[in-house]
Model the fold of this input.
Amino acid sequence: DIQMTQSPSTLSASVGDRVTITCRASQSISSWLAWYQQKPGKAPKLLIYKASTLESGVPSRFSGSGSGTEFTLTITSLHPDDFATYYCQQYSSYWTFGQGTKVEIK
Amino acid sequence: EVQLVETGGGLIQPGGSLRLSCAASGFTVSSNYMTWVRQAPGKGLEWVSIIYSAGTTYYADSVKGRFTISRDSSKNTLSLQMNALRAEDTAVYYCARASYNVGCCSFDSWGQGTLVTVSS
Done:
């Protein structure tokens, strides 16, 4: 089974900050990686797929990069609406999520 | 507009059975890959099962042999039959459409979820 590890688990930031979340796979997953945003009591929302492709309607301040085993999600300038939990997901072999990164207000 | 609405959750005793349904609108369930993902209270996301448009199904090891995914083309719905339920199956269950973009799959549309609580 492929394990996904996100860091940090919690991130404190302010509006306007540049935020980077890292996701590491236990083995190479090529670019078969997605990122989701989830707010409390709500369903996850797809942000990025194939490591770096922005889902339609997602603001351009979100970007993804990486391949193989190391990936990053970057928010260039944090908006108030971006405080949420973010999950990475691999789909190279079955489907596995990272444990999540909570972005909270500093 | 794509919409998914889950129903069927509730309180069930350990060892019991429950059937979740997911009604879709704005697209055809049988022409798409569809999946179930669950989230235990305060925890992360866990993939549960997927059904391909051709009918092929896959399950997480944690539910294999106990859960069955299916679809009803006439009603445009997805279902998850859950048997031999355990306390650790307690979670919000989401249905989602699985998007095939060369590789399979990211999950591009989600329902609001339905809570299953397994407790005596």
Q: What stands out?
A: Chain B is about 0% helix and 60% strand. Chain B touches chain A at residues 35, 37, 44-47, 50, 58, 60, 94, 96, 99, 101-108, 110-113 (CB under 8 Å). Chain B has a mean pLDDT of 97.
